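Shipment paperwork, digital attachment
Item: protein structure file
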Amino acid sequence: MGSAADWHAFLDEFRTFGGRAENVMQRKGAFGLGLFPIDPAKPVDLFAPDELLVPIDNLELRDGTLVIKDDSNFPDGYGDWFRRYEANYSWGAEGRESILTHEEGLKDLPDTVQKLMKGVGLYNADNRFPGNDVEQELMQRFIKTRCISRKDRRVIMPMIDLLNHSPTSKPYDMSGDGIAVGGLYDGEILVKYSVSDPLRRLIAYGFNAREGMGFSLSLRLQHRGRLVIVQGGGGRQPMQPCSVELNEDRIVIKQPLLASNGSPKMPRTLAIQALKSIEGIEPNELFEQIHQRNTQTLVQLLRELEGIDGDVAQRLRTSCLDQLAALSHHYGQRDDLLNESSSASPTS
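Attachment content:
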């Protein structure tokens, strides 16, 4: 990080390329480096136009700095500006070191913890951070925490990707010819990155957040004599019935929503809608079975973490407790939706 004068000069350059960054400054906060309003009484205005978004396949490390491989399709001088942006305010400011600390902390967890997380689809060190080319692996992990889908491509959104996450904040405004964040903020400018749950937020990003939804871990269980395979995860369309596939005697359930603090009757409703046409299945019972196995696994993970030192172990304990709390947000069902004769998908 440079001086305040350097920051304002840097923002002036960003504006010459068509971006907006009004009433913002970068400093340390509760979540590490973030953006804050200079004057909380005035609105913040951040905007990265589509022509300044950088596709992730057009990024590389050059002399330890994240740069645009081919900047010929960007405004003159933008490639150099982006290099200084990453070096001074993003990758080089805190990004690389925070990713390294998180990945090393995960790899240092006891084998029993890692085996359990691998078994339920949460973390696999061999695939995620093998250590064969540390700098390239760190860059890829960093990009995953900073990129966003925009017009069928994954891109980096300069300036806006400096914002930290809060599950209760508004998401990015993607309605115009770029990505924007604006409004009045009393403290740090926070956005909602995406829909997730506490465990997956921690594993993916390295911080704890009390997310309002809970999705299943990856599990295998027996239901009325049939093997059920649950593919864990979720978030893209949480209020749609999950997809279900029949494969011989196996039932594969993909990323079911198990809890929602905003719509606690929806998880069971969605499960019934997804499973009601499958012969030999009792949807309510299977929903409860999946819930039970998730709870049992989280308790087992907490027991394996007892007495383990380190920041990552502590954050993992916190996220397990937050996940258990998130999974409690379900009760009842939406009979009005279940009784509808049409096949329209629920929206609330």
